Amino acid sequence: MATAVIAIALCMSSLLSLTYAGANINGYVTGKVVCNPCAKKGKGGAPIKSAQMMIICFDKKTNAGTYARKGITDDVGVYKIAMKPGIEKDDCEVRLHKNSPLPDCREIVPGKNVTKVDFSTPVGTSNNKPLYSAAKVIGYKTKGSRCH
Ligand SMILES: *[C@@H]1O[C@H](CO)[C@@H](O)[C@H](O)[C@H]1NC(C)=O
């Protein structure tokens, strides 16, 4: 148990060391965090404000971590995370990070706690840079929800 905790801590700190502090931002990744992400054809229920997530990218060939950056949702459950140059060619995913800010909507839904990022076509622009979307809406569920 203690070993597992230490392993997780080491893993997180090595991911965090990938965090890019440069001003050279070349785009953004956006997506949404909701309560009960299975409702309404996957679009989900109420948006969750102040949910924390993290984008993590890996080199497709070596699987080495290339980028990690935290984000937080706004009033309508939307996050927007800055990208560093070059990660469009990597495999990136957005994972829920820490716990839900909502005490009554905090259970993990397997498969809806993480999403790939779709770099095929930008969905718009932000600050004159391309904006890419997460493939799926992610979120937490209420206790007893049939969302799974
Ligand atoms: C998502 O949830 C599943 C099932 O609880 C868990 O095994 C997995 O580690 C979680 N993934 C992330 C990225 O948190």
TrEMBL record:
Signal peptide extent: 1-21
Keywords annotated in UniProt: Disulfide bond, Signal
InterPro entries: Pollen_Ole_e1_allergen
Pfam families in the record: Pollen_Ole_e_1 (PF01190)
Stretches that traverse the bilayer: none
Family per record: Belongs to the Ole e I family.
Protein name: Pollen Ole e 1 allergen and extensin family protein
